[in-house]
Design goal:
The complex is a heterodimer.
Chain A lengths: L8 E9 L4 H8 L3 H4 L5 H17 L3 H15 L14 H6 L4 E2 L11 E9 L1 H4 L7 E9 L16 H13 L8 E3 L5 H11 L7 H5 L17 H4 L6 H12 L18 E8 L4 E9 L1
Parallel strand pairs in A: 5-6
Antiparallel strand pairs in A: 1-3, 4-7, 6-7
Chain B lengths: L14 H8 L4 E5 L5 E2 L14 E5 L3 E10 L13 E8 L4 E6 L12 E8 L5 E7 L3
Antiparallel strand pairs in B: 1-2, 1-3, 4-5, 4-7, 5-6, 7-8
The chains are: A alpha+beta, B mainly beta.
The complex binds zinc ion (ZN).
């Protein structure tokens, strides 16, 4: 539409009242009779089914997920807008949290919150005249293996992220080594692990090793979910990762800004993911500094 | 007082499945063209789109593909059952069924464990196929 001249600026917005409105509760407690009659409700249980299979096939599990939950919390501690800003998380906090749907404990799960996000898309040419440094869409890819969770053959990979990632990198004409940071859709900790594994950041089952030692934290070699993400900042569907990628590349992130302030690389390229269902659809976006 | 049980809501496609369950039989559609045994029930084969299928009776044996343990009450109807196990069981014939694993402590379960069907008569009209580990 932008290319065809039908419009000049497109606002993409998302907002919800997750704490009291119907939408998020629907996601969490929805009762399809064919599942509800067995006591199975909503997103936590579905992703937990996928995570358990991951534990079986490639030794995923809490020892990997704790690094994701705690690493993202450290970013949230630098972000005054994050719901968990004032709450550090220790390893004991992570392991001591109540089990929700095993293998997931409380801090494996994203948050329920009120709020919203919006981004403005325009042509690169127009963007150059605007107030902030522009951010370019370098590549995108989608792959939607679909299927009901019970029928899915890909809970432990290959998920949609595999093909979507390759398509996005091909379009951008870059490789994994060119990525400075990632904003990964993180409805659950396992989602971050399986997504980054499918993109190829580490081999199957090597996540525990890769995430340990602060890889994704402030000061780390591959910062992930630098606002705190959905686990520790706030949940706004795919707009939590995208808005953060854009803000980081514009240099508008204050104390959590990638670069010297956080002892990380100044970002030129940020990779984003989004997925739907329980790993049933996937989008990958690569953004570059304009 | 026990909360009212949640029962399945059969549609035109799944009605034969739930009727067979009432007789403690596990039945699925088998594609006349490619032989795929499918679930959920549907008017055409997800593999080859053939509309022709017949209902076959499954052995009731399979393996746990994956499972979870509910530790929180998502619905009051299950308040007294916490902790309970929800699983995806892969049947010998191929289809995967969302179900419960019963008669076994959750910590004794693992993926790929062999299981067999047991029936839970939850009302006059409905029996749910659940599974338990095969003895031995
Ligand atoms: Zn067929």
């Amino acid at each position: 539409m932008l290319d065809a001249g039908i419009c000049n600026y497109v606002a993409i917005s998302y907002g919800h009242s997750g704490l009291w409105g119907g939408g998020m509760r629907q996601l969490l407690f929805n009762t399809r009779p064919s599942e509800a009659c067995f006591g199975h409700f909503g997103a936590v249980g579905r992703y937990a089914l996928a995570a358990q299979r991951g534990m079986h096939e490639f030794s995923s599990g809490p020892e990997t997920w704790k690094h994701i939950a705690m690493g993202q919390r450290k970013w949230a501690n630098l972000n005054p807008a994050a719901i968990m800003h004032a709450k550090p998380m220790s390893e004991a906090d992570y392991h001591g949290a109540p089990l929700v749907v095993e293998p997931f404990r409380l801090f494996d799960s994203c948050q329920m919150n009120d709020g919203g996000r919006a981004i403005i898309v325009t042509s690169a040419e127009r963007a150059r005249d605007l107030k902030h440094r522009p951010v370019l869409i370098m590549g995108m890819g989608q792959h939607n293996p679909s299927n009901e969770i019970a029928q899915a053959r890909y809970l432990a990979g290959p998920t949609g992220a595999h093909k979507a990632g390759r398509a996005a990198f091909a379009m951008a004409g870059i490789g994994l080594d060119d990525v400075d940071a990632c904003q990964i859709y993180d409805c659950f900790t396992y989602t971050v692990e399986i997504t980054m594994q499918e993109y190829g950041f580490f081999g199957r089952g090597e996540g525990e090793n890769w995430f340990q030692g602060g890889t994704i934290e402030p000061g780390g070699t591959m910062p992930v979910n630098t606002s705190g993400g959905q686990l520790s900042e706030a949940y706004f569907m795919g707009l939590t990762p995208i808005a953060e990628a854009v803000m980081q590349l514009m240099g508008r992130c204050g104390p959590r800004q990638l670069g010297p302030e956080t002892r990380t690389r100044e970002p030129q390229v940020i990779l984003c993911s989004d997925n739907g269902g329980a790993l049933q659809s996937h989008s990958c976006l690569i953004f570059g500094r304009g | 007082m026990a909360k009212e049980k949640i029962v399945p809501a059969p549609d035109a496609d799944s009605k034969p499945f739930w009727e067979a369950c009432r007789d403690h039989k596990l039945k699925f559609q088998k594609c006349a063209a490619c032989g795929e045994v499918r679930w959920p029930a549907s008017i055409l084969c997800p593999q080859c789109h053939c509309r022709d299928a017949r209902w076959i009776e499954a052995s009731g044996r399979g393996i746990i593909h994956t499972f979870v343990v509910y530790h929180q009450v998502f619905n009051p109807a299950f308040k007294d059952q916490i902790p309970y196990v929800v699983a995806v069981v892969e049947l010998e014939e191929g289809p995967r069924l969302l179900t419960n694993i019963v008669d076994s402590p959750p910590e004794s379960l693992s993926c790929d464990l062999p299981v067999e069907v047991v029936w839970d008569d939850i009302s006059e009209e409905f029996s749910l196929p659940k599974f338990r580990p095969l003895p031995g």
